[in-house]
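Good morning C.,

I know you're traveling, so I'll keep this short. The sequence:
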Amino acid sequence: MSTQGRTEARMPVLLVRKRAGVVGETQRTCHLVPMPDDDSTPLAMTAYCGELIHRGEAELLAQPSGMPCVGCLFRVPMPRDGELAHDW
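The tokens, ready to paste straight into the viewer:
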């Protein structure tokens, strides 16, 4: 099957994990955070699970890394109609 013309599912979320030393290793889960509405860097972000993450205490991830935050996975919004590829 050709993939030409097919769109990827895109979620407006960031993958964020608290830095080593800020929290213990077992608390360094990969959180899902809503993408800010503008290009500014906020002082703090709230993950879908409710975790408050302040600027400078976390790292932005290019891909999932480590254990996912189960609370975030349960609460992240599903893509709107038309945002998912039809064959997944």
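Safe travels,
E.
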